[in-house]
Every structure is written in structure tokens, then in C-alpha cells.
Backbone:
């Protein structure tokens, strides 16, 4: 499918639209060639070739598309493919690098601080907010299988909530966890997570399994 | 202009022939290719070659063959004019570059089977042009998509396989290689006589296997050497390493180190063995015996040539952190020279994780504080230790759960138990997805096995061919040395850059 030309408007539109992560990734992936060609072209001495605003938005958006599709090593590789001068000077790309470091080191609290506290460009905000929500959900699923019992402050820390409010047993915070099937023991002041089931959209196909087993059977003969 | 009109007529005839029988279509394509090659060799198009609008008369999909030869003619004209292999007119983002890239995305894969050499030259020139402007990323997608368009199975090893993994490593665009790397390479291009000895096959016909049209004479691959195959798997392993897919990396490196060899093992194999040790440590925390395909004397040779790596692995497996750190420090120059420092650092970082996994063998449950006492590598505060263990569990590396107490001063309990595994539904869907993947792989392998069986069963020349192959491999082995070194020069630079 022919994509619209590589432009600030188009990338802003992609960042604002709620495309499924894999689709967003694929579309942005196709624009990388344009971005790479543009960055090799003539431009200011400070930022390298091309339109720095467009390149910054593109690479930042593409970086978030990697995170939304859980491709952390490849996101790191992307930061090495970015035009070097731009990477060193552009605030948005610098924020991406800081975020990458926090994710790499699984510093959950820091990840939320970076996403919420650093100045992200307006056109990137939808993706930043989207990733924050994604990261929160993903972490909630992970800690629900990791912990049998967890203090509210620890859980709040993982989810970017206020640990002190959670420590005091604030009902609104506790409600966030109990609404996911967790149980709250007020006497022990502990939350008991319940593993969260993520249903895939793919329909189960018993035929596929049957065919595989048949193939395994035949190949042994 | 007469020549151009002739080409238009030929293309129109070819379009019509597509609706005829395979035999007629085959004959028409062969005639067209012969005629186009003649036109190119006579330089009849030289006068029009620099005319960019010439290509506007043709459609890259419907007139795939003519378009391909016109592109070749234009490239040739620019090469002769500039006396450079990659003339400036060909560099991205020029008009000719864009046309080539568009063509490689859209060409007719059936027609191109008859002009494999020209197709390959186009792919190679795209790779070269991207590298001339120091932007290998520009060629990654066009090369990969062209490969998958011509042969979606990618089961027959070609020189383009190697080209693609090199480009991806240079561009640091690792996942772009996966659609090809994740497929099984089952064959080498065979000589045409094998494929057609008794049952002549037409390239334009529908084929169960691409082995029927990717032959030694098709030109789709340049002449392959033993070294190319080794390098493909070494570089492929490095791509998986960059993506931290340790299991697949170990498999790819395992292919290199278990490659049969009549003579001495090559430097590429030793290089792969060194990486294989580190990757196995990262994957499982231990180095299992290499494949039983490796003769014992070869295994011993590997161990003596990679002694520092073997010692490092022993220290790791003994759980001796001090010794491990000493080995890492002592071998620093070696790791740097081998461009394996990044991997060694990762091995050191993974020590804690594997220590926790090892403690599982002794304890069913223990507090985080007790664990920190047991594991010398966990030299952190209790809170940081708990956080590190939680991240091991969340990543799926350690099967355990944590139980906190209401008081922050009581140490959290770590329970090694499968009791709180993922919900059943999730397990089943994972197993189902895994089975579906395995089913696809098995299907592809069965087809290839069937193909091999078919050739073995029907071709009397198969054994002769195998013998010739042996001679070919041995002859290449004898050249191990300078050639291998020269090949590794480029790769070694890349190895160091792998995170």
C-alpha cells in the first residue's frame, strides 16, 4: 500500500491515531528510509541534514512504537541508527535515551517520572500517554503473577501511584487493585494479587493441534 | 526508437503468453530473455540509457523482464560513463535508485526466475549504493522484500542470504532480518542436471519447492563457497545475539561449529565456538556438550583454541564470582581482541540471575535476606535484591513468587514453586501458539525432506553430485587461512558492536 508522503503532518497524525501497535510499527518502519535519506541531505550544521523537527518526531514516535510492541533490544538499536548530531542535541530524543536506560534497568518508578515529568513535544504526547498506560497495564499483569502478597506501597511504586497514599490504605488506591481481582486483607494490610488472564483474539484451533500431532506421528514412521 | 518499440512489442507478447500453457509461456519468456540479453550486449540501448523517461513506457509488474533489462542498461551506461561500479546517478535518493527500489518491491517473481543473474546484480547494486552513502539501512528492506518476493520460503541458500544479514548487522536493523533468518535453509542450489535429468521442470510452472528454479545455473545466487554458508550462520547468530534471543543464537552458532570438515577447522568455526560458549552461559547458565555431530578430536581442538572462554565458563558454572571476575579481568585483552567484550559483560551481569536459578535446586523457599547471604553476587540492599529478583521473575527467567509481610522490616519470602504459574488458559494458548509455530516449521521441513528424498530416489547422478560436492568442500577447506582471515576482517568489526 502506498503511504502518504513523509511529513510532519503525517507523522503527527500517526502519533495521535490509535492504531494497533504492530500496525503503527509497520507504518513507521516504512518511513525509516525517508527519514534516513532526509537526514543524509543538506541541513543545518547543528542538527545535521533535513528537517530536525520532523526527524525528531519521527524517531521519537518510532521509538515508542518499538516499546509498544515490546521490542526493547531493537529500540536500543534504533537509538544507534538515529542521526548522531540530532540524537545528541534533540531534547525529545534525549528523553527517549533516558527512558530507554530506565527500562533497560527495570527502574519502574523512574520510568513513570520520565514519562510524566520530562518535557515531551506536544505532537508526541498521545504516544507518551499511550505508552504510560501500556507500561502500567503490563507491569500490573507481571506483578500479579510475581507476588503472592504485596504491600500497597510496593504495588503503588510499580504502577506509578503515590506510595504514601497507598501505604495509608487509601480506598481509591486499593480499589484500583481489587477491581483487577486482587483481594485486600485490611488486618494484615496486604494485597493478594490474582493472576490476570490476557485473552488473545486468536480463536483456538484444535484442528491445528490435530494436524501437528498427525504430522509428528507420520514423520516417525 | 525502433529498439524501444521492439521492446514494447515483446512485452505485449509476453503479457499475452501468460494466459497460454506453461510450455508456451516458458518458450516466450526464454525468447524474450535471449533477445533482451542480445540487445544489452550489443549496447543497442546505449543512446536511450540515460533517458529517464524511457522506463515510463513500461510497467515494473506486467513488464517485469523488459523493465529489469532496461534498468540494467541504464546502470551499465552510467557505470561506463563514470567508470565507477556505483555511479553517482545510482545513489539514493536519485531517480534511478527510486525506480530500482520500487521495482524490487513489485517485480513479477515468475518472469524474473528466467533472469536470475540480472535480478541478483540489481539487488547487489542496491546494497552497494546504500553502503557508498553509509546508509545500509536504505538497502535492507528492498533486499529482504525482493528475496521474499522471489522465493517466499527462502529455503534454498543463496548469496543474497549472506548479503542481507551483513546489511542488517551493518545497519543495526536486526529485526529486519528475521523474516528470512527465522526460515529454515534446507538446500543449496543444485546443478540444473539434477533437477531436470528425468522430469524437466519449467521455471514458470507452479513448484512445491524453490529448489526447482534456484539452481546453480539460474544466476539467482552467485557462486557459493563453504565459507559463505559458515558466515551466514555466524552472522545470523550475531543478529539473534543482538536481539537477546539466546536460544536461536546458540542454534545458529551450533550449526557453524558442527559443520563437517575434512581438514582443519576454520577461524570462523573457532570464532563461532567462542561466542557459542558465552551464548550458552547467557541462555542456560551452563555450557552443555556441543552437538554429537562434532567428532571428539574436533571438540578437543575447539577447547584448546578457546581456553580462556572455557575457563570463564567453568568459573561461571562453579558459581564462583570472585574467580569469574578474575577470569574476566585477566582475559580483558582477549575479549577485546575477539570483539566479545560486550558479551562477556553480559555474562557477568547474568551471573546473579543464574545464581538465583541455581539456589532453586537446594531450597524450596527462603527469605530475600537469606538468599543474599547465599549468593555473593547479590551485594545490594534487601530492597534492591528484592527488586532484582522480582525483575527475574517478571521476565520469566526464574519460576518463583514473592511473599511480602505487612511490616517492611521483615524480609520478603521467595518461594520456588510452579504452583502459581500462569493461569491455565494462558498456558494453553501459549502451548497452542507454540504448536502452531512448530506445525508450520515441521510442514516446511517435511516439504524439504520430501524434496531431498525425491532427488535421492529419482536421480542416479545424486551420488556423483554428492561426491563432487565433497571435492568442492575439501578444495575450499584447503584454502583455509588467508581467505578466511580476509572474510573475517569485516565481521570482526561488527562483532564488537553487538550490545
Residues:
Amino acid at each position: 500500500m502506498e503511504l502518504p508522503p513523509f511529513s510532519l503532518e503525517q507523522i503527527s497524525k500517526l502519533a495521535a491515531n490509535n492504531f494497533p501497535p504492530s500496525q503503527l510499527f509497520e507504518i513507521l518502519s516504512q518511513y525509516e528510509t525517508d527519514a534516513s535519506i532526509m537526514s543524509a541531505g543538506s541541513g543545518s550544521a547543528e542538527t545535521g541534514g533535513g528537517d530536525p523537527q520532523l526527524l525528531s518526531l519521527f524517531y521519537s514516535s518510532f521509538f515508542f512504537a518499538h516499546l509498544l510492541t515490546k521490542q526493547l533490544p531493537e529500540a536500543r538499536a534504533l537509538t544507534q541508527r538515529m542521526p548522531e548530531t540530532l540524537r545528541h542535541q534533540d531534547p525529545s530524543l534525549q528523553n527517549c535515551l533516558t527512558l530507554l536506560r530506565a527500562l533497560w534497568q527495570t527502574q519502574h518508578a523512574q520510568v513513570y517520572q520520565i514519562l510524566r515529568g520530562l518535557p515531551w513535544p506536544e505532537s508526541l504526547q498521545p504516544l507518551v500517554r499511550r505508552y504510560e498506560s501500556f507500561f502500567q497495564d503490563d507491569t500490573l499483569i507481571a506483578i500479579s503473577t510475581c507476588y503472592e502478597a504485596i504491600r500497597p506501597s510496593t504495588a503503588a511504586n510499580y504502577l506509578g501511584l503515590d506510595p504514601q497514599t497507598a501505604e495509608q490504605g487509601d480506598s481509591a488506591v486499593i480499589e484500583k487493585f481489587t477491581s483487577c481481582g486482587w483481594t485486600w486483607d485490611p488486618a494484615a494490610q496486604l494485597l493478594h494479587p490474582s493472576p490476570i488472564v490476557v485473552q488473545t483474539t486468536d480463536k483456538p484451533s484444535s484442528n491445528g493441534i490435530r494436524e501437528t500431532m498427525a504430522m509428528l506421528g507420520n514423520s516417525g514412521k | 526508437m525502433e529498439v524501444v518499440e521492439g521492446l514494447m512489442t515483446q512485452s505485449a507478447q509476453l503479457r499475452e503468453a501468460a494466459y497460454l500453457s506453461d510450455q508456451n509461456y516458458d518458450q516466450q519468456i526464454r525468447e524474450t530473455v535471449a533477445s533482451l540479453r542480445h540487445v544489452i550486449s550489443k549496447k543497442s540501448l546505449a543512446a536511450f540509457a540515460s533517458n529517464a523517461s524511457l522506463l515510463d513506457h513500461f510497467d515494473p509488474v506486467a513488464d517485469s523482464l523488459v523493465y529489469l533489462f532496461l534498468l540494467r542498461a541504464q546502470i551499465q551506461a552510467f557505470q561506463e560513463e563514470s567508470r565507477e561500479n556505483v555511479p553517482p546517478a545510482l545513489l539514493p535518493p536519485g531517480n534511478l535508485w527510486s525506480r530500482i527500489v520500487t521495482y524490487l518491491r513489485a517485480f513479477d517473481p515468475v518472469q524474473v526466475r528466467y533472469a536470475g543473474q540480472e535480478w541478483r546484480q540489481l539487488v547487489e547494486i542496491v546494497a552497494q549504493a546504500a553502503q557508498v552513502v553509509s546508509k545500509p539501512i536504505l538497502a535492507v528492506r528492498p533486499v529482504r522484500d525482493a528475496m521474499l518476493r522471489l522465493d517466499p520460503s527462502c529455503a534454498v541458500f543463496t548469496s543474497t542470504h549472506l548479503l542481507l544479514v551483513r546489511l542488517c548487522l551493518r545497519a543495526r536493523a536486526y529485526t529486519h532480518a528475521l523474516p528470512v533468518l527465522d526460515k529454515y535453509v534446507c538446500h543449496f542450489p543444485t546443478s540444473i542436471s539434477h533437477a531436470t535429468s528425468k522430469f524437466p521442470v519449467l521455471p514458470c510452472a507452479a513448484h512445491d519447492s524453490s529448489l526447482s528454479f534456484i539452481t546453480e545455473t539460474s544466476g539467482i545466487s552467485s557462486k557459493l563457497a563453504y565459507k559463505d554458508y559458515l558466515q551466514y550462520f555466524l552472522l545470523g547468530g550475531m543478529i539473534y545475539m543482538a536481539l537477546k534471543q539466546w536460544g536461536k543464537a546458540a542454534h545458529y552458532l551450533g550449526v557453524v561449529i558442527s559443520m563437517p570438515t575434512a581438514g582443519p577447522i576454520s577461524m570462523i568455526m573457532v570464532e563461532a565456538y567462542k561466542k557459542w560458549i558465552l551464548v550458552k552461559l547467557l541462555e542456560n547458565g551452563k555450557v552443555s556438550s556441543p552437538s554429537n555431530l562434532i567428532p571428539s578430536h574436533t571438540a578437543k581442538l575447539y577447547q584448546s583454541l578457546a581456553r580462556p572462554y572455557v575457563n570463564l565458563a567453568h568459573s561461571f558454572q562453579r558459581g564462583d564470582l570472585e574467580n569469574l571476575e578474575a577470569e574476566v579481568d585477566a582475559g580483558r585483552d582477549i575479549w577485546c581482541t575477539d570483539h566479545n567484550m560486550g558479551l562477556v559483560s553480559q555474562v557477568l551481569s547474568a551471573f546473579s540471575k543464574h545464581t538465583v536459578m541455581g539456589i532453586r535446586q537446594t531450597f524450596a523457599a527462603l527469605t530475600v535476606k537469606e538468599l543474599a547471604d547465599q549468593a555473593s553476587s547479590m551485594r545490594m540492599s534487601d530492597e534492591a535484591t528484592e527488586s532484582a529478583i522480582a525483575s527475574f521473575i517478571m521476565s520469566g527467567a526464574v519460576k518463583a513468587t514473592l511473599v511480602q509481610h505487612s511490616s517492611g522490616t521483615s524480609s520478603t519470602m521467595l518461594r520456588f514453586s510452579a504452583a502459581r504459574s500462569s493461569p491455565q488458559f494462558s498456558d494453553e494458548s501459549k502451548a497452542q501458539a507454540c504448536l502452531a509455530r512448530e506445525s508450520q516449521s515441521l510442514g516446511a521441513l517435511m516439504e524439504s525432506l520430501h524434496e531431498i528424498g525425491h532427488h535421492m530416489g529419482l536421480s542416479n547422478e545424486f551420488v556423483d553430485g554428492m561426491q563432487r560436492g565433497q571435492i568442492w568442500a575439501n578444495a575450499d577447506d584447503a584454502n583455509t587461512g588467508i581467505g578466511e582471515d580476509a572474510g573475517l576482517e569485516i565481521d570482526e568489526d561488527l562483532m564488537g558492536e553487538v550490545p
